[in-house]
Structure formats: C-alpha cells, structure tokens
Amino acid sequence: MFLLVHEDREYLRGPGEELQTDLGVLTVPEDAAPGDTLETHLGTTFHVRELRGPDLFDHLDRTGAPMMPRDIGLVVGHTGAAAGDRVLDAGTGTGILSAYLGRIGADVTTYERDPEFAEQARTNMEVAGVADRVDVRTGDLAVEVDELIAEIDDGDTAPFDLLTLDTEDAPTIVRRAPELLAPGGFLSVYSPFVEHTREVVEATRDADLSDVKTFETIQRRMQFDDRGSRPDTAGVGHTGYLTFGRHDF
Ligand SMILES: C[S@@+](CC[C@H](N)C(=O)[O-])C[C@H]1O[C@@H](n2cnc3c(N)ncnc32)[C@H](O)[C@@H]1O
Predict the structure, then answer these.
(1) Is the C or the N end of the chain the one with fewer CB within 10 Å?
(2) Mean pLDDT per 10-residue section of the chain, whose length is 249 residues
(3) Beta strand 86-90 with 160-165: parallel, antiparallel or unpaired?
(4) Which PROSITE patterns does the entry mention (predicted)?
(5) Alpha carbon of 203 to ligand 1 centroid (Å)
(6) Could you give the domains of the chain?
C-alpha cells in the first residue's frame, strides 16, 4: 500500500488499484515505488509515498482509540524498545502501537478480545507492512495470561522484553508482569484517567517492579505567524498517563 499525496489530500491505494476523485482518475502501476509521480487523466499529479508511522495513525481504519504518536515516542524512549525485542501487547485496538513497534523491528504478540477488532487489526498490520512481525491473537489477555506463563515456565515461549498495556484491566495483568518479563524487561501502561493510573501504580508495587515512574503526557503545539509565536490556543495538550516499571530478577 502507498499514500498518494496531492497538496493536503492523501489517499491509500495499492498497486493496480484505481483512484477516482474530482482531481481525475488514475490507476496505480504494478511497479509503482515511493518517490514516483503519477498523473490523473485530468493532468493532476500525485506523489507516491511509503507509509510511515504517522501515516498509519492518520489512515489505518480505526476501532479502539489509537495511542497518539507522542505517547508511542515516550513508550519507546522510556523502555528502549528496539529491533529484535519480544513485545507482549494488549489490547491491540486499531494496532497503532503494535505497528510502530513492528516497524522498528520488534516482534510483537498482541491480544484483542473483540474478534472484529482483531480482524481489522490484522488487515491494518498488512497495510502497515508488519504482518510478519506482529501476531494479532484474538483473546482476552487476562484470560490467556495463565497459559502464556505456563508456556514460558515450560520453556516453550521465551519471556518478553516489554509488556505494553492499554486496557481497563491492566492492573490485573501488571500483577503478573514478573512472570511474563525477562530480567530487566520493562512494563508500560497507558491510562486515560488518574484513578486508573493509581490502581496501576499500586499493582506495580504488589508485583515488586522497580524504577516505577508515571508521567502525565502533555504536548503543546507551537504557532508561528505574523503576530508572533506562542503555543496553539486550540485544544488541550493532555492525552493521558504513562506508567513504566521494570522487572529486575
Ligand atoms: C484503547 S484500545 C488500544 C489501542 C492501541 N494501543 C492502539 O495503539 O491502537 C483498547 C483495546 O483493548 C481491548 N481490550 C480491553 N481489554 C482487553 C484484554 N484484557 N485483552 C485483550 N484486549 C483487550 C479493547 O477491545 C480495545 O480494542
């Protein structure tokens, strides 16, 4: 899949697919490549762009509310997620976090309890080009966790380097984090409300995780115009809370 871009208009299309808009009609050639320029029958040009993380955030079909790119940046920054890391994620939702982690080369196992959401997430991973790195499993991680831990204990599955949670029941799974994580592995939990965050922090204490830190995530976009420069007055820069912890031994 590529993005076809003309000024501020962007469309997702694959090789052989047609784009029909008021700017004209074009068919994406089978051998199209990023950087190519395509022309509609009315002579309007579109640039072919490879899909990268922010494009996935803007264009993948959404189910569960996706994590914001800035929050994903904090997850990667605070956990050092890297190529080759084994990540356990829940819930998949739209799959934005999973797709970003797949794009940096991590191997992600992600659980989504809603079968239709899981199916959409599998399609999204194909579009993102990470279906070989992101295994979307239909299931409730809170239910599946015993079986996963048994597989780790039996040596059938390696423990995970990173556990990322974006679910209401995250505290339940946080209590099992030491059984899921490799020594030195990280936990990251996204919470939309401060009450939930407190429950998560209490669960990290029950689980004896170290280096527990919680951040409110706020980002202010800047405006630069003829009158001056200042933070954007539209919208609030708050998205939620991120809690990190580490399994030492
Ligand atoms: C906010 S969305 C996650 C968005 C995702 N982080 C992203 O970046 O696109 C939460 C999703 O978790 C799923 N979910 C909630 N609890 C779950 C659980 N225990 N196991 C698996 N999925 C769960 C919900 O169905 C929902 O789709």
Answers:
(1) C
(2) 96 96 97 97 97 96 94 98 98 98 98 98 97 98 98 97 98 98 98 97 98 95 94 84 95
(3) parallel
(4) RRNA_A_DIMETH, SAM_TRM61
(5) 19
(6) 2-50 (3.10.330.20), 55-246 (3.40.50.150)
- Measured by CA distance, the residue closest to atom 13 of ligand 1 is 91
**Partners of 203 in the β-ladder:** none
